[in-house]
Amino acid sequence: MMKLVLAASVFMFTSGMAFAAKAHREAAKEIDPKIKEASATVKSGCGCAPGFAWDMKSFEKTPADKADEFKSNIKKEFEDLAKTAKEFCSDAASKKLFCSKVKKIQIFTKTSGDPETKFAGGVFTVTTSNQMASGGYGMKSEMEKW
């Protein structure tokens, strides 16, 4: 009887892991096109396209039952960040400034807390959670310092 319980527990654990891995893998199918859209939006507005990326490792650490919420926020972040960049690039001088400063925009996920945006070494790093996206406000705030 003990072996049966142990076997059932192992099966349930590994099945859950497989589901979690699939939920996280499937997210890339929806997020990667958003990266292409964001890049095209920035290119059309600013004349350049910094690299866009999301950190799959931090996403894989999120709970499987929250994967859809995290995925939605990551997609929303890319939309908001691209829109914010395009709005910043309102004239030739701001386009030149943006293109000379921004080399990459990347998104990480965390399991709780408010979004954070940092800019260093030509890289915008946005950390989001399942609770909310940054709305591009952190990026806008950083660019206003330029």
Structural account:
It contains five helices and four strands. It has 146 residues and is α/β, with parallel strands linked by helices. The protein has one domain (2-144). Helix 1 (2-46) packs parallel to helix 3 (67-88). The longest helix is centred in the first third of the chain and has 45 residues, at 2-46. The protein is globular, with a radius of gyration of 19 Å.
Quick overview of this protein structure:
A four-stranded mixed beta sheet has the order 1-2-4-3. By secondary structure, it is an alpha/beta fold.
Low-confidence stretches: 4-20
Q: What does the largest sheet look like?
A: 4 strands, mixed
- Counting DSSP H or I runs of 4 or more residues, the number of helices is 5
N-end to C-end Cα span? 68 Å
**What order do the SSEs take from the amino end to the carboxyl end, as H and E?**
HEHHHEEEH
Rg of Cα set? 19 Å
Average predicted local confidence, pLDDT: 83
Number of domains: 1
Strand order of the largest sheet: 1-2-4-3
The percent of residues in helical segments reads: 55-70%
Tell me the overall shape: globular
% residues in beta strands: 5-15%
Q: What is the β-strand count?
A: 4
